[in-house]
Design goal:
One of its GO terms (biological process) is glycolytic process. There is one protein chain. This protein is of the alpha/beta class. The strands form four sheets. A six-stranded parallel β-sheet has the order 3-2-1-4-5-6, sandwiched between helices. A three-stranded antiparallel β-sheet has the order 7-10-11. The longest helix is centred in the first third of the chain and has 20 residues. The protein is globular and about 55 Å long.
């Protein structure tokens, strides 16, 4: 059968996260050409074969190993490559290695792609997003970090458990850093269109908000401690972002990009806010109504990320 490619997504990094993302993209039928790029070509080839050999249960999708030249006509490039965070490892130590890796990847991408749309997953995702934007010189709306999408998913999951309600009925966000300074936006949460506190009152549940926010923040570390790595959750979060972009849905998602001058003191920092996401990347960044306490917490998150970005700027 001739390979007739209609839509292409390149996944850079064929480790656990990259492979899980490629698999999820195939299952959700988000492209008919998925290319895995990795320095370890055997790993990329093995992952591609493993996924491709199951495509008969879904649809015809080309899943294959390739090189950076595949970026030339890709609709989307997803960067997952980097060293996985180990138990007890600081984010700064992780960043020192991964920023160097993603800068090299960005150079390779730009050798072939003229105006790519890049989705950053490599941790620490906010910092690698800023580094790749600087390296590529692309418009900020075309270099997107997965940001707090997974944190938000964890948050909604823990809330659904505490309230014993369908997770789809919960709307709310974790914003700021994909890390320790993240902010739970309690004032904006609704359940079935009803303010969170009112819903909890009506169903007779007293929420331990501090415990829920803490478990959300530590969700990744908990999984790493128990099984050594996280990859299914982030794969589902990323495939959701990809779906909104590939289908040009203009959906509102908590993703990260480097903010422009219109954000005043927050400008120049890659941080997660509610963004309208479509075919061209981030179409618009929204200002969510918030309490003074939440605003102060986000100001702190911006400061943490700015200091973090500056500490790895020349790596």
């Amino acid at each position: 059968m001739a390979e007739s490619h209609k839509s292409k997504i390149v996944v850079v990094g064929a480790g656990n996260v990259g492979e899980a993302i490629a698999y999820t993209l195939m299952v959700r039928k988000l492209a008919n050409d998925i290319v895995l790029v990795d320095l370890n070509e055997d790993r990329a080839q093995g992952a591609a074969l493993d996924i491709a050999q199951g495509t008969s249960f879904f649809k015809q999708v080309w899943v294959r190993k390739g090189g950076y030249e595949e970026c030339a006509d890709a609709e989307l490039i997803i960067v997952t490559a980097g060293i996985a965070r180990k138990p007890g490892q600081t984010r700064l130590d992780l960043a020192k290695t991964n920023v160097s890796i993603v800068r090299s990847i960005a150079k390779s991408i730009m050798e072939y792609a003229k105006n790519p749309l890049i989705l950053m997953v490599s941790n620490p995702a906010d910092i690698t997003t800023a580094a790749v934007l600087e390296e590529t010189g692309l418009p900020s709306h075309r270099v997107i970090g997965s940001g707090t999408s997974l944190d938000t998913a964890r948050f909604r999951y823990f809330l659904s458990q505490a309230l014993n309600v369908n997770i789809e009925d919960i709307q709310g966000y974790i914003l700021g850093e994909h890390g320790d300074s993240q902010v739970a936006m309690w004032s904006a949460i609704t359940v079935g269109g009803m303010p969170l506190d009112e819903y909890a009152k009506q169903v007779g549940v007293e929420l331990d908000k501090e415990a829920i926010a803490k478990r959300t923040k530590e969700g990744g570390a908990e999984v790493i401690r128990l099984k050594g790595a996280t990859f299914y959750g982030i794969a589902m979060a990323v495939s959701n972002i990809v779906e909104k972009m590939m289908k040009d849905e203009n959906a509102v998602l908590p993703v990260a990009h480097v903010l422009g001058e219109e954000f005043g003191d927050w400008a120049g920092v890659a941080i997660s806010l509610p963004c309208v996401v479509g075919w061209d990347g981030i179409e618009k960044t929204l200002s969510l109504p918030m309490t003074e306490e939440e605003k102060a917490a986000l100001d702190n998150s911006v400061k943490v990320l700015r200091d973090f970005q500056n500490s790895v700027k020349d790596m």
